[in-house]
Amino acid sequence: MTSEEAKFILTAFRPNGSDSGDSAFADALRMADDDPMLGQWFARSRAHDSAVAGKLGRIAPPAGLREAILAGARVSKSDRGRGTTLAWAAGLAAAAVLAIIVGSIRTPGRPESAATGFAGFAISDVVNERHGGRGEPSGALVARLEAKGVRMPAAGEIDFERLRDTGCRTLNFAGHDVLEVCFARDGVMFHFYVTRRDGALADSIAKGPSFISEASGAAAVWSDSQFDYALASTAGIEAIRRLL
């Protein structure tokens, strides 16, 4: 299987990971795990699909769209003029839905590009079964995060190299190492991701966290002087907000 063939197969992979057990994707998924370039493309593809799915899920169709389409289908051949009018109405309504979708995807002021990609990457990884890590620094960070009332750590509390080199789970996003630790708080599972600041979220993210919600979960992304962070969970935005 070539890289292009794997991409063709993986474009049909649902971003929430529900196809992970489908044998039709098995070879392409293994190839994405072994090929860093393909793996990066796959992470970006899932992040984009997840973002689009989330936008679609929040958009209500224009009032009367269903009725207009059904009425157009029922119109008799002898009533071609009225049928044409209804068809135009249905078409315009559908175009309005598409315009809303495109506009919402491009709306300024929402986290876009790398920020949205990093959030989508985190949300997609939540459904991955390969979590966990080893080493005393990783265990100490998990213990800290599980302490009730503790906020997310900042740059001075993260020893990135030591965490990575002693066995903290390490992923790759856009060519950069990303550390991940899982922890539970009040019975809810969270996934905390850290990558060096040159991973380049938008500078505006440094002003405070931005929240992204998709069908399969939610994430907050933020930055400080050294690192970009993501916190993801299937429990939703409010559960995440309470930890920040």
Main sheet specs = 6 strands, antiparallel
Helical content class: 40-55%
Number of domains: 2
Strand elements, count = 6
The helix tally amounts to: 9
What percent strand?
15-25%
**Cα separation of the termini:** 44 Å
Instruction: Evaluate the radius of gyration.
Output: 22 Å
Structural overview:
It is a single chain. The protein is an alpha+beta fold. It has two domains: 1-107, no CATH class; 113-241, no CATH class. 47% of the residues lie in helices and 18% in strands. It has nine helices and six strands, in the order H-H-H-H-H-H-H-H-E-E-E-E-E-E-H. It has helices at residues 3-10, 23-34, 36-57, 65-74, 80-106, 113-126, 136-146, 160-165, 237-241; strands spanning 169-173, 176-185, 188-196, 210-214, 217-223, 227-233. A six-stranded antiparallel β-sheet has the order 1-2-3-6-5-4, sandwiched between helices. A hairpin with a 3-residue loop joins strand 5 and strand 6. Helix 3 (36-57) crosses helix 6 (113-126) and helix 4 (65-74) runs antiparallel to helix 5. The longest helix is centred in the middle third of the chain and has 27 residues, at 80-106. Residues 100-112 have low confidence and may be disordered.
